[in-house]
Design goal:
With about 280 residues, this protein is of the alpha+beta class. The protein contains four helices and 18 strands. Strand 16 and strand 17 form a beta hairpin.
Length: about 280
């Protein structure tokens, strides 16, 4: 359909920004093309990608989410995106639930909305924070080489693939070269997110602090990545570099990951609306 006006919300979690569209209200015939067009930071709205949210088809979940990266490829899971969808669903009064089951390409994820004590002028409580259960990780050690560069790290699956490399000086890493080089390494036929991590402090007051920069498959160098934060937390704990709770300091802000005794990883962090708007297709 041409000439259709689409209302959208642009949100970010620590600078990891997406364009959010209610799929129950608007049918996008080619969301991959829309993601490429709208994500362009010079000619479009500007974002790391497009996220569609709406009611779930089955009874196992309450709502659903689809992720399209800036290059149009469809993602499996996005921790920051899931948290922002939970925020939007409550803010737009699409649900009054504070426990939401969200269907994603990586499976169902549980979202918890922590509400503030005081409501607004309509007596509807505000959201203080959003937590998403990222479920159980799997991981293995891996050493890869490409164009004369060898990196040793952990491959971590959080429902989507990550390769976590620990370094002594993250600012000295040529991420814009190494990121795309290893994103498309033959070891990752479906490409991979690449994280470079530096331990800032192993355990201050019970939580580790880790500096992370992320090259996201399909989006490039981003300010933050929720699943990447979880992957780094798991990799650091699994290798004895840090505790199972970590503050992950990314370019756009800090996310908090907790690898729990039940093996599930919880992700917590801020969400913010950048602006709302309309666009014609």
């Amino acid at each position: 359909m041409t000439g259709q006006t689409i209302r959208f919300t642009k949100m970010h979690g620590c600078g990891n920004d997406y364009i959010y569209v209610d799929a129950d209200r608007y049918l996008l015939a080619d969301p991959a093309a829309m993601a490429r067009q709208w994500s362009d930071r010079r000619k479009g709205i500007g974002a790391d990608g497009l996220i569609l949210y709406g009611k779930a088809d089955g009874r196992k979940a309450d709502f659903s989410m689809r992720i399209f990266n800036a290059d149009g490829s469809e993602g499996l899971m996005c921790g920051n995106g899931a948290r922002c969808v939970g925020w939007l669903l409550y803010e737009q009064a699409l649900t009054d639930q504070t426990e939401i089951r969200l269907d994603t390409k990586a499976g169902i994820r549980a979202i918890t909305l922590n509400l503030a004590e005081n409501g607004n002028s309509t007596n509807r409580k505000q959201i203080a924070s959003v937590v998403v259960d990222m479920m159980e990780p799997s991981f293995r050690e891996q050493t890869l080489s490409a164009e004369g560069v060898t990196l040793s790290g952990l491959y971590v699956s959080m429902g989507n693939p990550h390769f976590v490399v620990f370094v002594d000086d993250i600012e000295a890493c040529d991420i814009e070269r190494l990121g795309p080089l290893f994103e498309r390494h033959p070891a990752f036929p479906e490409r991979c997110n690449i994280e470079f991590a530096q331990i800032l402090s192993p355990s201050p007051t019970g939580k580790s602090r880790i500096r992370v920069r992320v090259w996201e498959r399909g989006s490039g160098l981003t300010l933050a990545c929720g699943t990447g934060a979880c992957a780094v937390c798991v990799a650091a704990a699994a290798t004895g570099r840090a505790d199972r709770q970590s503050a992950i300091v990314m370019d756009g802000g800090t996310l908090f990951a907790h690898w729990q005794p039940n093996n599930h990883v919880l992700l917590t962090g801020p969400c913010a609306t950048v602006f709302k708007g309309e666009i014609q297709i």
